[in-house]
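Consider the following input, taken from an annotated entry for Amidohydrolase family protein (Rhodohalobacter sulfatireducens).
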Amino acid sequence: MKMIYYLSVALVISCLSLPESIFAQSPPAYALENVTIHKSDGSVIDSGTIIWRDGIIESVGSDIEIPFDAYSVIDGGDSLHVYPGFIDGLGTWGSPEPPERPEQPDDPGNPGYDRAGIQPDRSAGDHLDASGNTFTDVMKTGITSANLGLKGFMLAGQPDLYFLNGEGTPDHLLKESTGYQFALEGAAGGWLSRAYPSTTMGVMAQFRQLMYDATALQDHIQYFADADGTIQPPKRDGVLESLFPLINGDAHLYASVDSPEGFERVMILNNEFGLNVIIISGKSVHYKADELGEMGIPVLASIELPEKPDWMKEDEDSDTNEPGSEEEERYRERQAEAYKAAAENIRTLLDEEVSVGFASAGLDADKLHEHLRALKEEGGLSEDEILQLLTVNTAEILEISETLGQLDIGFNASFAVFNSPFLEEESAVKMVISNGEVHEF
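Applying the prediction step yields:
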């Protein structure tokens, strides 16, 4: 009996001394084989294989052996094209709509933070509505991750970065509070509802006051802490305190700008307060491309090209173009030059060495590929440049380039699988892998 007891004790002790690796079980691998792999640097791998495990790419290339523990092996049959997952630098997918007809405040000159459109304390994730097909439709464009902001006015809130996962998107947070949204947009309703600020100059004055007030409050909080209670305690203010990272230069300001005048006004604020500005949309900032390049200010650009003048559309559809009067021809020439400059907005920015990524900035998901094709045909960009815009460039601006944007070993397993090269007219997304999870369409 004693012998059995001693043997049992010895067995327990020997098991406890075994290395943990014997009991550990690695997560299963997944594989996608016989596909054409398009990397963000423009290189292409034919009949390639991608293996990922626990959301991380383990192998990518040709002649790769599928591991014995592969849970799922998807054979592309040499007909599918794989791209790094597209990244939306700032989108408002899933954001609630602001009120259309807000009530007129009792004191229009001091309407309160929310009524004035001053909501920097809002977190996008706290208001995210992922019900329905919204995020599934976005994923069908090839977008696998998005910096999600809020619809609003002057200071709409703080975006959060997510891996897209359909209705499960709120459970796939990648990075919380990536910065603050800012727009030169007055309070809802403007003069009709008499709420301040209702003009561009009012927005600039109000923003300045907020920065000064936040700085003063931060100083008072620090003085009070250092004074051991011998001075009057500060009156705490959650909205102003939420701005501390911004006034300290520790956070980005996503400034929505679509005109040279808007850019100038944002730069006045930038120079005054030392902000870390990222331009959002920037449809007409090609006029300021040299300044953007010199100042090192990045742009998360809209890919929505302007509408062509009717006469240009008619000329394209007609075999014979009848000349108009001399005055009309001069007018058309000016229109054509303006359209070309706007269409080549991103091309001009890149030529001035501006860092340019992509932001959906209100674009409908079903229009994405139509505008991408127009960007190649009318905007002077190559397919490789467009792919870089959607992937590695955006990842660098959002400071996540060590995790996303490339199809390489050690990067997050987020990529899109198309039935043909992604800019072809009939191209469609067959599946996306987002943070290692497979979503088939």
